[in-house]
């Protein structure tokens, strides 16, 4: 079954330009796309749908994520080690958010929350969100967003409950906007340069090598020449500085960069940024209002308790917290990482 989105698409993202008067056929159910085989809740990819993972992913209220990419048949994505990959028109990026019932034991099942799609159409990337039903039999197109209560046992054995917010389609622009255009955030060479088991029984493989062998990545040099993002919570993968910068890059730099929605802040939290003032060190805030917490600088070297950055990360006040969308809880573990990083800055 398909529904025809006309005014909704026009109002949310300008998917239809004035004068074209074209409608866009959008499947009502996630299962209509054919991305998965068997029970759709199993998230077993169909032929041509490739799983992937990021070394250091975006925090989303402790939700876990299953990521997949589907390129048009016969197409490849060109290697580029400076930015997110430039996927060809016809590509779909698929991301399912879920909570294990018990983070200590995956055999106790999980609850799928939503599946977000980014589809690269001829006029640019378009976002669609599918919300899973309570029966976990399918996910249905949702434009207006939703809020659901989630309950689970965390990795420390503590029972947790909080609200999980499913964004409306306009809110997608808050993170995915670059120069007024919607773009992907995560899948870059440095983020994909890590291992992933492509099936339950399989041995983990390097993702870049897998993509190259599957003929969906072209122009790749030898693996030792490819940059690699460390895993933020694994000290063996990188220094304190590298891991903190990796976390800030994926969680903050999609807005705080010279071309992002928060460009007017003057902050550039991209992993490639070298200007220490733009990084926030001894930088006074721009129009932060009460979001500054009365603190003088974004980052005060050696003093996280005096830095605006930590104030905003530890807040859950919608008028103060950062990121502004995508979370209602504090990511305590990464906050500790950022505190330690600021303490080490001289």
From TrEMBL:
<protein>
    <recommendedName>
        <fullName>Cytochrome C Planctomycete-type domain-containing protein</fullName>
    </recommendedName>
</protein>
<dbReference type="InterPro" id="IPR022269">
    <property type="entry name" value="SO_2930-like_C"/>
</dbReference>
């Amino acid at each position: 079954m398909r529904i025809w989105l006309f005014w909704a698409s026009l109002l949310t993202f300008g998917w239809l330009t004035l004068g074209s008067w074209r409608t866009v056929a959008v499947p009502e159910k996630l299962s209509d796309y054919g991305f998965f085989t068997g029970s759709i809740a199993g998230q077993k990819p169909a032929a041509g749908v490739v799983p992937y993972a990021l070394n250091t992913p975006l925090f989303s209220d402790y939700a876990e994520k299953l990521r997949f990419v589907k390129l048009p048949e016969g197409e490849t994505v060109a290697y580029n080690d400076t930015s997110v990959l430039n996927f060809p028109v016809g590509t779909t990026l698929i991301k399912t958010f879920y909570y294990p019932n018990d983070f200590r034991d995956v055999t106790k099942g999980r609850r799928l929350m939503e599946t977000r799609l980014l589809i690269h159409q001829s006029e640019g990337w378009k976002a669609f969100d599918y919300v899973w039903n309570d029966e976990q039999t399918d996910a249905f197109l949702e434009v207006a967003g939703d809020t659901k209560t989630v309950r689970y046992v965390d990795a420390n054995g503590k029972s947790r409950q909080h609200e999980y917010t499913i964004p409306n389609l306009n809110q997608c622009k808050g993170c995915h906007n670059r120069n007024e255009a919607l773009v992907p955030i995560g899948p870059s060479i440095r983020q994909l340069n890590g291992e992933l088991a492509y099936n339950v029984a399989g041995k983990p493989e390097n993702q870049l090598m897998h993509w190259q062998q599957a003929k969906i990545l072209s122009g790749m040099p030898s693996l030792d020449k490819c940059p690699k993002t460390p895993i933020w919570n694994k000290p063996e993968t990188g220094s304190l500085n590298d891991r903190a910068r990796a976390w800030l890059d994926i969680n903050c730099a999609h807005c705080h960069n010279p071309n992002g929605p928060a460009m007017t802040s003057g902050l550039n939290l991209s992993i490639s940024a070298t200007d220490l003032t733009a990084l926030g060190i001894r930088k006074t805030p721009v129009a932060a209002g009460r979001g500054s917490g009365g603190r003088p600088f974004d980052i005060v070297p050696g003093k996280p308790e005096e830095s605006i950055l930590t104030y905003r990360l530890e807040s859950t006040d919608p008028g103060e917290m950062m990121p502004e969308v995508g979370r209602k809880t504090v990511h305590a573990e990464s906050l500790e990482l950022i505190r330690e990083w600021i303490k080490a800055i001289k």
